Amino acid sequence: MKKKTALITGVNGQDGAYLSRLLVDKGYQVIGTVRSLNTNYSRLEYMNVLSKIKIIECNLLETGSLDRLLKKHNNICEIYHLAAISFVHTTFDQPYLTLETNTLPLITILELIRHKYKHIKLYQASTSEIYGNNGIKVMDEDSTKLPVSPYAISKLTSFQLIRMYRDAYGIFCCNGILFNHESPLRGELFVTKKITKSLARYALGLSRENKIGTSKRA
User: Which domains does the chain have, with CATH numbers?
Assistant: First the structure.
């Protein structure tokens, strides 16, 4: 039986590493994209999966780059789109880049599936940040969404693009609304890692690093 092949964008992140391990264990062939081959693969090494997947450098902002990848690896049947600018605080300083990076590649993927690769199923990593400060304690997919950062706005745009393409064109695509999920692979720029690292330094009698970031909401 021929192996299923999955493409994971942003494969070297926390979620990409865990997802790679899961899919490899399920018998998938996994192809992962990174912005540059000169990148950090420590998470994939930690999950003992780096040697078991294929890493490809791909500029997701270039339509032709992704099209060539899908044409070359025409057995790809699932795409897990994880790549994004995801540091909420820094997106206030780079709103244009955030919106471009977090929305345009998704449109490219959706259009390629719509016109050329209709067999591919797509998962888009969304975020609980799309709910913002809606004041609701128990939420579901239809709860009010009030994004309060460029990151959240870009992710809500992507969330709605998935819904629109699914309803308008019958594409198999879905959003995963991810709330905080932590692990030993969490990057050190995320607030939870900053807090735990600071507490660890305190326990060892070292100076703490207390700067977390400030809100820039009007």
Answer: 5-187 (3.40.50.720), 188-218 (no CATH)
